[in-house]
Specification:
Structural class: mainly alpha
Radius of gyration: 52 Å
CATH topology of one domain: Serine Threonine Protein Phosphatase 5, Tetratricopeptide repeat
Distance between the termini: 130 Å
CATH architecture of one domain: Alpha Horseshoe
Shape: rod-shaped
CATH class of one domain: Mainly Alpha
CATH superfamily of one domain: Tetratricopeptide repeat domain
C-alpha cells in the first residue's frame, strides 16, 4: 500500500510539473502568426525595393559608360581626321660620319685636267731640254707623271673602250705592282665594272662588296653600292637589291647615285 501511494504521489507531481511548463510556453496565437507573416512580407518587399534600386544604378552606370565610350570614339575619329589633313613631319636627319663624302659618279672620261697635265709632262720636259740646249742658262724640267698613275689609266682606257678582259688584266697588274697607291680603290671598282659588263653578276657583286668593305669612306663606295643593287636585280634577287639600295640612301644620301637609287627602289617596290 505504501508503495502504491508513493507511486501515485510521484505521478501527480509529474503532472503538476508538466502543467507548469505548459503555462510558461503557451501556444502561439493567431495574432502573433499574422504579425510574423506581415513582418516577413515587409522584409521581402524591402529586399525587392533594394534590388530594384541596385539594378537602376547599374543601368545608369552602363548608360554613362556607353555615352563616354561614344564620346571617346568621336574624339578619336576627329583626331585621325586632323592628322590626315596635316602635312607629314620631316624625316629626322640620318646620322653620318663627319668624314666628307664627295660625289661618286662613275667617270665617262678618262682623266681630269690635272691628270692630263701630268701625262703631258714628259713632252714639256723634252721641249724644256731643247730650249736648254740653245739657251745659256738651263731651265728646270717638270717632274714626269707617276708610273702608277700611267698604269692605272692604261687599264681604265681599256675598260672604257669596251675591252673588259684586257682592262681587268691591266688593273690587276696595277694592283700587284702598286698595292699602296691612292688609286687602288678606283682600280677595284673598275674591275667590278668589267665583271658587270660581261654579265658575270656574281663576281661583280663580290668585287663591288670588296670596295665597300675595304674603302667605306672612299668616293667609290656609293657607286659600288648602287651597282650591287643593280647586279642583285639582274640575278632576280629583289630582296637584296632593295636592301643595298636602301643602304646607299642611308649612308650616302647626298651622293650622285642617290637620285637613281630612289627611282630604282620605287620601281622595285611597286
Amino acid at each position: 500500500m505504501k508503495t502504491l501511494a508513493a507511486t501515485s504521489l510521484g505521478f501527480l507531481a509529474l503532472l503538476l510539473l508538466l502543467a507548469g511548463c505548459a503555462a510558461k510556453n503557451p501556444p502561439p496565437s493567431e495574432d502573433s502568426m499574422e504579425w510574423r507573416v506581415k513582418s516577413l512580407e515587409e522584409s521581402f518587399l524591402q529586399f525587392q525595393e533594394a534590388q530594384r534600386g541596385t539594378q537602376d544604378s547599374i543601368a545608369a552606370l552602363e548608360a554613362r559608360m556607353e555615352e563616354r565610350l561614344k564620346r571617346l570614339e568621336a574624339e578619336l575619329e576627329e583626331a585621325k581626321l586632323q592628322m590626315s589633313q596635316q602635312p607629314p613631319a620631316p624625316e629626322p636627319p640620318v646620322a653620318r660620319s663627319p668624314e666628307p663624302r664627295p660625289w661618286t659618279a662613275p667617270p665617262t672620261k678618262i682623266p681630269e685636267p690635272a691628270r692630263a697635265e701630268k701625262s703631258a709632262a714628259p713632252a714639256k720636259a723634252q721641249k724644256s731640254k731643247a730650249k736648254a740646249a740653245a739657251a745659256p742658262a738651263p731651265a728646270p724640267a717638270k717632274a714626269p707623271a707617276k708610273e702608277s698613275q700611267a698604269a692605272y689609266e692604261r687599264g681604265l682606257r681599256l675598260v672604257l673602250a669596251d675591252k673588259p678582259v684586257e682592262g681587268r688584266e691591266a688593273l690587276q697588274e696595277f694592283l700587284k705592282n702598286y698595292p699602296n697607291d691612292s688609286l687602288v680603290p678606283n682600280a677595284h671598282y673598275w674591275i667590278g665594272e668589267t665583271w658587270y659588263a660581261q654579265k658575270d653578276f656574281t663576281q661583280a657583286i663580290l668585287t663591288f662588296k670588296d670596295v665597300t668593305q675595304k674603302f667605306p669612306r672612299h668616293d667609290k663606295a656609293a657607286a659600288a653600292l648602287y651597282k650591287i643593287g643593280l647586279a642583285y636585280e639582274a640575278v632576280g634577287d629583289k630582296a637584296n637589291a632593295v636592301f643595298y639600295l636602301k643602304a646607299l640612301l642611308d649612308e650616302y644620301p647626298r651622293s650622285e647615285q642617290a637620285a637613281p637609287a630612289r627611282l630604282k627602289l620605287k620601281s622595285l617596290q611597286g
